[in-house]
Amino acid sequence: MAKSKSGSKTMVLLTLAVLVVLFSLFLVTRMSGKVDQTEALKNQPSLENQPTMGNPSAGINIVEFGDYKCPSCKAWGEQVFPQLKKEYMDTGKAKFSYINVLFHGEESKLGALAAESVFAQDNDAYWKFHKQLFDTQPRENHDAPWITVDVLLNIAKAYAPQVDAKKVGDDIKNQITMPQVNIDEQLVKTYNIQQTPSLMINGVMVKNPFDYNEITSIINKR
């Protein structure tokens, strides 16, 4: 009888010990999650001198790392971005910035140089130019050369008439906006961007930028 009581007491103590350990792990996990979120906010890209739309005071920062030559970026801009803009940027809940990625070589660079030149003159004109450049990307055989200086200048003249197209041409030719493009390239390296588009929300990278539910879930947790 004594042995039975002793065994029961031991089981109770072991059960309590296990519960204490599990509760401790739960607390550590919760605390770790909070630290990770804080660190993410601290380590998100600086948006200074980056093209940005939406409420400047919004607490939600959405950043796309994209490439004008990238067909997936074109698809994301058509399939996901319009709803994101309507629900978050247009309502003042979030701001959105674009960072150039040069994964497709010289054409990516040309597009980035031109876009940065337009942005230097007018932020609103930049977004019109930005959209039209993606719209101009061919749906088939997109790997063939299509981003040329003439194409870029024609887009600037037609869709961003408030900017000086001649200056855009000079900026491309003389690579005047290369310092801004270099800043973006450094951010791509810093954040180890491996694919385009890549989407970051308040420093947290979205696993699948085409999954709108994942995007809204991250936003709602901020």
UniProtKB/TrEMBL annotation:
According to the entry, every stretch annotated as the Thioredoxin-like fold domain falls at: 48-221
Keywords in alphabetical order: Disulfide bond, Oxidoreductase, Redox-active center, Signal
Matching Pfam families: Thioredoxin_4
Which family, according to UniProt?
Answer: Belongs to the thioredoxin family. DsbA subfamily.
Entry protein name: DsbA family protein
Organism of derivation: Paenibacillus agricola
